[in-house]
Amino acid sequence: MGFLEREPIMLDMPESFESSRLLIRAPRWNDGAIVHEAVKESIRELRPWMPWAKRLPTPEEAEISIRRSRLQFLDRSDLRLLLLMKDTGELVGSSGLHRIDWQARKFEIGYWVRTSYSGQGYITEAVDAITAFAARELQAGRIEIRCDSRNVRSAKVAERLGFSLEGVLRNDRCDVDGILRDTIVFSKIRGIEL
């Protein structure tokens, strides 16, 4: 049976892989505490871009989110990944492969970084490793990065990694304050950039 003929839940894939400095892994029960601490430290920087960061989630809400993410990873409907320092185990941020279309083998990479690790190349390193993982393990045909047109730092990650700018979707979504904003779309496709 070919890759595209399988039910996604039947796909065997590693739960973790590494980049030079990071352990990149699926969420596990009780990871809510480390996620909560990182979000608490970073809430001011996350708030403009992440709808879920409008208010600080409680520790219990963080654990509920982790447990849902664990279940989604197992049923292959969403592949959230935690980014941890290999040497200390401290959470650097979160990323993953989202808005999955298994038939087209299309994935969107999303990411956020903990404030104390910002500006040190961790997200670029993680996104590069996740892109390679998706191409190798999941036979990705298309990988996208989408961001608010005002989120210059997020767009720079895509540009540094050689994602092609496909365009700007004008008045595409409302931001966290309900104001229409533009979305920048970057991609890599199999046979060209992957």
Can you offer a commentary on this structure?
- With 194 residues, the protein is an alpha+beta fold.
- It has a domain at 15-143: Aminopeptidase.
- 29% of the residues lie in helices and 31% in strands.
- The protein has helices at residues 32-46, 59-75, 122-137, 152-160, and strands at residues 16-18, 22-25, 79-85, 91-101, 106-113, 142-148, 164-174, 180-189.
- It has an eight-stranded mixed beta sheet with strand order 1-2-3-4-5-6-8-7, sandwiched between helices.
- Helix 1 (32-46) crosses helix 2.
- The radius of gyration is 16 Å and the shape is globular.
- The mean pLDDT is 95.
Quick structural gist:
It contains 4 helices and 8 strands, in the order E-E-H-H-E-E-E-H-E-H-E-E. It is of the alpha+beta class and 194 residues long.
The CATH first-level class of the domain at 15-143 comes to: Alpha Beta
Sheet with the most strands: spatial strand order: 1-2-3-4-5-6-8-7
Secondary structure tally: strands: 8
* Sheet with the most strands, sense and barrel status: 8 strands, mixed
Q: What is the C-alpha radius of gyration, as a whole number of Å?
A: 16 Å
Q: What fraction, in percent, of the residue positions are helical?
A: 25-40%
How would the global form be characterised? globular
Q: pLDDT below 50 for ≥5 consecutive residues: which ranges?
A: none
Going by CATH, what is the homologous superfamily of the domain at 15-143?
Gcn5-related N-acetyltransferase (GNAT)
Class by helix and strand content?
alpha+beta
Which architecture of the domain at 15-143 would the CATH scheme give at its second level? Answer: 3-Layer(aba) Sandwich
Strand content: 25-35%
Number of helices: 4
Mean pLDDT: 95
Q: Under CATH, the topology of the domain at 15-143 is which? A: Aminopeptidase
Distance between the termini: 24 Å
Subunit arrangement of the protein: single chain
Q: From N to C, what is the helix and strand string?
A: EEHHEEEHEHEE
